[in-house]
TrEMBL record:
Its EC number is 1.3.3.3. One of its GO terms (molecular function) is coproporphyrinogen oxidase activity. Homodimer. SUPFAM superfamilies: Coproporphyrinogen III oxidase. Pfam families: Coprogen_oxidas (PF01218). GO terms for biological process: protoporphyrinogen IX biosynthetic process. Pathway: Porphyrin-containing compound metabolism; protoporphyrin-IX biosynthesis; protoporphyrinogen-IX from coproporphyrinogen-III (O2 route): step 1/1. The lineage of its organism: Eukaryota, Fungi, Fungi incertae sedis, Zoopagomycota, Kickxellomycotina. The chain crosses the membrane at residues 48-68. This is coproporphyrinogen oxidase. It comes from Smittium simulii. Keywords: Membrane, Oxidoreductase, Porphyrin biosynthesis, Transmembrane, Transmembrane helix.
């Protein structure tokens, strides 16, 4: 039995406002402990910090600057610990850190800066919680910069640990010229009406993307990514934003089906969607089922979730609020599932089945996934990060067969026909 206690009021409203960011500089070298050797400068205006950040990141080659949200006050930390806890039976086993920053309704800061701050904060809190669950070794923080200084990213990886075969939490903030191929891909979607021929465009993008492959075959693989794009005309002296949009989603890929887990995952996503627009979840759920379909196998990759792209039908601030909530509620959607399944016993056959399912995951990502293909075709793309979503191990077995009525078959049945989970 698992209980996941959340306040009636959404967490995003219960925490104190995002306060002045703390600027810290550190070196993400081979050191696995990112917190060593910090230089802290407190009390700087976050707006200044944000605009400074991108410039700094591009100018200073080896040092890295990035932000942390101020911590809520100690009383609130205690309060929030009580709100979110994972129980198994009577015994409390794990206490996660749910001290998320809250959405600042009054902020007038441009979405670009807020988005950058958001992905960094989400990365930090997720990595921390995965480390709490794993409790064996820390994530490896790999900070990179594009050779042309037009962007940076931080890839956090945990590989071959006790609980996670491979977990990656990747953040990147980049800008640059929009290539012909990217332009065509955008035109073929709904951005076509705003994009002119014979004009050169620049893009700006900030995103977070995560894939987690647990060791235990009873624990589901998960993926999510959220991103924000802006386009400007290169020759426009004012650099007015031509168009901007949000995209992303989250989906679950179990090897063994636990219906209550699927329901919990979907319900959490749905609750966060419903807060913003009741039409979001049904639409985005359907998108997800359609997107994560493997045609050559005639099955979906997993049990779905939500997926959307080109979201720009209302004020940017409202959409950012939506993305903000979706991002932080990922903790609630997934972490209880891993906590519940990571210690279950399993057989050699269970592990083999997981490996075969991993093979399908690879097939989808390499053959069908738009993001991976786009990344590999982008000049200067970082192959290592793009392929971060692939599992450490997988297995292809010629004509693998499973007994009728087995738990393996139960999963396959669900992957053949879309189900309503929430
Ligand atoms: C794919 O699976 C569906 C659902 O089981 C089935 O109705 C359909 O005929 C299958 N298509 C092919 C090409 O096998
Ligand atoms: C899993 O088992 C380990 C001991 O093997 C224990 O320390 C940990 O608390 C357990 N975690 C959960 C969430 O059950
Ligand atoms: C992860 O990093 C690569 C660059 O190395 C980038 O292409 C990709 O977009 C990143 N993912 C996100 C969503 O940040
Ligand atoms: C299949 O499983 C169900 C319950 O899980 C059981 O009632 C049924 O008898 C099984 N059928 C066969 C053919 O084994």
């Amino acid at each position: 039995m698992i209980r996941f206690i959340l306040p009636k009021k959404h967490f995003a409203h219960t925490l104190p406002k995002l306060r002045a960011a703390t600027l810290r500089s550190s070196r993400y070298s081979q050191s696995s402990k990112p917190n060593r050797g910090f230089l802290e400068i407190q009390g700087i205006n976050p707006g200044v910090v944000m605009s400074f950040s991108f410039a700094a990141a591009t100018i200073i080659a080896s040092a890295s600057y990035y932000f942390f949200m101020d911590k809520p006050d100690p009383a609130l930390i205690e309060y929030n610990k009580k709100l979110v806890q994972i129980d198994m039976g009577e015994r409390r086993l794990t206490e996660l850190d749910m001290n998320f920053p809250s959405f600042d309704e009054e902020s007038t800061e441009p979405i670009k800066g807020r988005m950058e701050k958001f992905v960094l904060a989400l990365q930090k809190s997720l990595v921390k919680n995965l480390e709490i669950l794993d409790n064996t070794k820390p994530f490896f923080w790999d900070r990179w910069e594009r050779e042309d200084s037009k962007g940076y990213g931080i890839s956090c990886i945990l590989q071959d640990s006790k609980i996670f075969e491979k977990a990656g939490v990747n953040v990147s903030i980049m800008q640059g010229p929009l290539s012909k191929q990217q332009l065509e891909s955008m035109k073929s979607r709904k951005q076509s009406n705003t994009i002119k021929d014979n004009v050169d465009y620049d893009f700006w993008v900030a995103g977070i993307s995560t894939v987690i492959h647990p060791v235990n075959p009873m624990a589901p693989t998960v993926h999510f990514n959220y991103r924000y794009f802006e386009l400007t005309e290169r020759d426009d002296p004012e650099q007015k934003v031509v168009t901007s949009w949000f995209g992303g989603g989250a989906d679950l890929t179990p090897s063994y089906l636990f219906e209550e887990d699927c329901a919990h995952f979907h319900q959490t996503l749905k609750d966060s969607c419903d807060k913003h627009d009741q039409s979001f979840y049904p639409k985005f759920k359907k998108n997800c089922d359609e997107y994560f379909f493997i045609p050559h196998r005639n099955e979906t990759r997993g049990i779905g979730g939500i997926f959307f792209d080109d979201l720009n039908d209302r004020p940017k601030k409202d959409l950012f609020h939506f993305i903000f909530d979706m991002g932080f509620s990922f903790h609630t959607a997934y972490l209880p599932l891993i906590a519940k399944r990571m210690n279950m016993s399993y057989t050699k056959e269970n592990k083999e089945w997981q490996q075969i399912r991993r093979g399908r995951y690879v097939e989808f990502n390499l053959v069908n996934d738009r993001g991976t293909k786009f990344g590999l075709h982008t000049k200067g793309g970082r192959t290592e990060s793009i392929l971060m979503s692939l599992p450490l191990t997988a297995r292809w077995e010629y004509k693998h067969s499973i007994p009728l009525n087995s738990s393996e078959q139960k999963l396959l049945d669900v992957l053949k026909t879309s189900r309503e989970w929430a």
